[in-house]
């Protein structure tokens, strides 16, 4: 069971690892930090929050990816926003959530999650 | 149902493998065109690979064990009837147990609502399931440090509580409004 889930997750782990390698090797940090770094402010946080909400990456792998964001100059706030929306909001699983729990419940949960992810991100940026 | 699941998993696996193929090709081409980037790219990828391999098996074993120890029925049974502060903490606790992806939790949540669990508890349970999982926190600490992990965890718990109460209010308020409009007809669903 554990071994099977390990194998199942392996391809996407490798994809992310290659992506991180290329990201850190090719994209100059000052470019990245202009979009999602300290000086990007509110816009940068919202961009990464949307990215995190739309993408469907297993949360376990989002952490090394987020760590690589930080290394190339992303701010703490944008990194926190990315992880929080990635784990809390599922656009891919939304149809299932609506089916099981109702439209109102699912939309409220995902919508408010997005807002609190941004609030959490800003507090993280302030305290760290 | 089970057959359907394995079919879905196989499809997902195939998609992941194709993605891996594309990424590998892109990397090889880029590294051939820019030979001077070979060393930093390969070194970074390798370092992250070693980190992942160091922690992933432990996480997977933990998840496997818990999905056997704590059955869905147990969770539904305990969360269905507990209310108040105790129910909220239990919701966080059960959600945080290292078991399965989020879509597994939707049917459980649906059963609990039918059994009369509070909306706030269900919201807290789902959110905890999504982003306060114990193995996730392990990996987060390893890659982003204790300070980052602990502050994000604490903030998430606080805001998830608030969100639970808020969503409950909104849904109760709109249900009341609806039932008035429909002359007290009982609302199906939520």
Structural notes for this entry:
The complex is a heterodimer of chains A (128) and B (190). With 128 residues, chain A is mainly α. Chain A has one domain. Chain A has seven helices and no strands. The radius of gyration of chain A is 16 Å and the shape is flat. With 190 residues, chain B is mostly helical. Chain B has a domain at 64-181. Helix content of chain B is 84%, strand content 0%. Chain B is built from eight helices and no strands. Chain B has helices at residues 2-33, 38-69, 72-81, 84-96, 102-114, 119-131, 134-144, 146-181. At the A-B interface, helix 1, helix 4, helix 5, helix 6 and helix 7 of A face helix 1, helix 2, helix 5, helix 6 and helix 7 of B.
Largest interface: A-B, 59 and 73 residues
Q: Major sheet of chain A: size, sense and barrel closure?
A: none
**Oligomeric state of the chains present here:** heterodimer
Residues in helix, % of chain A? over 70%
How large is the radius of gyration of chain B? 22 Å
Shape of chain B: elongated
First-last Cα distance of chain A: 39 Å
Structural class by helix and strand composition of chain B: mainly alpha
Number of helices of chain A: 7
Shape of chain A: flat
Number of domains of chain A: 1
What's the average pLDDT of chain B? Answer: 82
**Element-by-element helix/strand order of chain B:** HHHHHHHH
SSE order of chain A? HHHHHHH
Q: Tell how many strands the DSSP assignment of chain B holds.
A: 0
How many strands, what sense, and barrel or not for the largest sheet of chain B? none
Low-confidence stretches of chain B: 184-190
- Residue-averaged pLDDT of chain A, rounded? 87
Which percent bin holds the helix content of chain B?
over 70%
């Amino acid at each position: 069971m554990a071994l099977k889930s390990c194998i199942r997750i392996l391809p996407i782990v490798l994809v992310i690892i290659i992506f991180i390698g290329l990201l850190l090797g090719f994209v100059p940090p000052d470019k990245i930090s202009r979009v999602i770094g300290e000086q990007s402010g509110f816009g940068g946080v919202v961009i990464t929050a949307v990215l995190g909400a739309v993408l469907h990456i297993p949360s376990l792998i989002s952490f090394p990816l987020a760590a690589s964001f930080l290394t190339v100059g992303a701010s703490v706030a944008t990194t926190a926003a990315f992880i929080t929306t990635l784990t809390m909001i599922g656009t891919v699983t939304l149809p299932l959530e609506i089916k099981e729990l109702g439209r109102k419940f699912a939309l409220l949960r995902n919508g408010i999650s997005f807002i609190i992810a941004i609030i959490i991100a800003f507090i993280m940026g302030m305290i760290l | 149902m089970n057959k359907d699941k394995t079919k879905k998993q196989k499809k997902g696996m195939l998609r992941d493998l194709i993605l891996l193929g594309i990424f590998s090709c892109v990397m090889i081409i880029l590294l051939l065109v820019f030979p001077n980037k070979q060393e930093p790219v390969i070194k970074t990828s390798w370092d992250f690979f070693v980190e992942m391999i160091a922690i992933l098996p432990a996480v997977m074993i933990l998840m496997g064990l818990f999905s056997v120890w704590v059955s869905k029925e147990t969770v539904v049974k305990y969360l269905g009837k507990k209310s108040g502060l105790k129910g909220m903490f239990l919701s966080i606790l059960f959600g945080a147990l290292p078991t399965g992806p989020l879509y597994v939790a939707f049917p459980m949540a649906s059963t609990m609502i039918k059994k009369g669990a509070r909306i706030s508890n269900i919201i807290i349970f789902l959110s905890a399931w999504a982003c306060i999982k114990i193995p996730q926190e392990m990996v987060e600490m390893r890659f982003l440090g204790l300070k980052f992990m602990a502050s994000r965890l604490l903030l998430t718990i606080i805001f998830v509580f608030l969100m639970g109460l808020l969503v409950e209010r909104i849904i109760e308020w709109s249900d009341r409004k609806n039932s008035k409009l429909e002359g007290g007809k009982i609302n199906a669903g939520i």
